[in-house]
């Protein structure tokens, strides 16, 4: 037994020796060293080095729930309105990559927003986002206009040696609803546009920026009395969808000095040159101040039919010349830590001609439509047109608008804070513009016509002309506040409420809520057999509840 055991051990030792000898002849394969993620402290908390590079990256984001309530005043039957509640869930993903170079920091930043929302238009859906292709409606009987999914490339820009290129917030903006949930106050807030800009740092907190920005995101339509000339029926509840032309009448023939022949100019705008934005800014420990200016081109088509419609000798109508709108804005932010740490006051005012979206007059009602409405059962619509085409000259005449806003943020304690905000604005059309449009309307719509859309101005001298809502000078007033609880860092639980009033500056308009058939009975209005209910103002109160976690 001992002999057998000794033989086995000896054989094992021999095999081990032979194996070791052969292994010594083979090349040794070393393990690849593990490269651990390293913290990058050069740009603040949260950055780390991308393995194998000298680029620092920060991943962050947001999750949000929001529910809201808006009173519905609709009394109409069979329309897709009447919801008083709305709900949404939203996500945000941010990627911030930075590399130090001989020219300074090279930065690339991207942000993706997405969400699902249902219910009333104040929270549940957005006509503005739908119009610019960022939101997609549900098409069911009980979901169209009430259900919406959206995805938005909110940011995608590069910053290098003073240059900013890509999709970013407009440099014109200042306050941009910084203390608000809903962006209820008036004022410019173009968080996503395409631009190429250069910022010079002048020292002592001063900087100057010149920016070329995408004009499409700053357009309000040129007035057209026919909102949907093609009779489009897909997405019929939003008549501006799929519109291929937008005619505005011009006179091309006269008889004894009276216009008797007309044609149309297509007022859908063409892109030619970018908007030009210039900014001077000061940032100090006490706060910030900014002065902004912008130039915005209005560019439409030619006369569609030289022969026109009607009688009388033709005259030569010149090309509708391009028109250049403009806007100026001043903003001031004052930090008030002497009241409470974190407190701040914003003051802002803007004035513009042919550039309504730069003053932000349509911030509440929504943009990219000439007469959008978001109040459920709204009594009358405001018109947000940047200009009208004068039918006598064929040339553009710009509208004007102004807005002023104040907002104050106060910390009751480190965990509780409130915002208080208010704003006022007005929009005016050129003196005589409505009368001129009425003359064109009267020629293009001979006596006897009984049913008109809400874009109809009406024939001058008639009762309908006095009461129609088209191209009326209007005003807006907004006031609201919020209370927010942050029990832990980056978690907000809060509620916001605000009141919005819109009104006409002069005269009265048809109340479409109480007289929903008025625009189908124009003859009765003019001959006195139908007396519509009228109004001078409309208002609504809105409330939102929000739970938000940033990381």
Offer a quick outline of the entry.
The chain has 551 residues and is mainly beta.
Structure description:
This protein is mainly beta and 551 residues long. The chain contains six helices and 26 strands. The protein has helices at 2-25, 127-131, 356-359, 433-444, 463-467, 522-527; strands at 48-49, 56-70, 85-101, 104-119, 135-137, 147-160, 163-168, 193-203, 206-213, 247-255, 258-266, 275-284, 287-298, 309-310, 313-314, 323-335, 344-353, 387-389, 396-398, 400-411, 416-428, 474-485, 491-504, 509-510, 534-535, 537-550. Strands 2-3-4-6-7-8-9-12-13-16-17-20-21-22-23-26 form a 16-stranded antiparallel β-barrel. A hairpin with a 2-residue loop joins strand 10 (247-255) and strand 11. It is globular and about 95 Å long. Mean pLDDT is 87; it is low at 1-24 and 228-240.
Distance between the termini: 73 Å
What fraction of the residues are assigned to beta strands by DSSP? 35-45%
Number of helical elements: 6
The number of E-state strands comes to 26
Name the overall outline: globular
> How confident is the prediction overall: mean pLDDT?
87
User: Which structural class do the helices and strands define?
Assistant: mainly beta
Physical arrangement of strands within the biggest beta sheet: 2-3-4-6-7-8-9-12-13-16-17-20-21-22-23-26
Radius of gyration: 31 Å
Q: Which blocks of ≥5 consecutive residues have pLDDT under 50?
A: 1-24, 228-240
Q: Residue share in helices?
A: 10-25%
Q: Give a short account of the largest sheet.
A: 16 strands, antiparallel, barrel
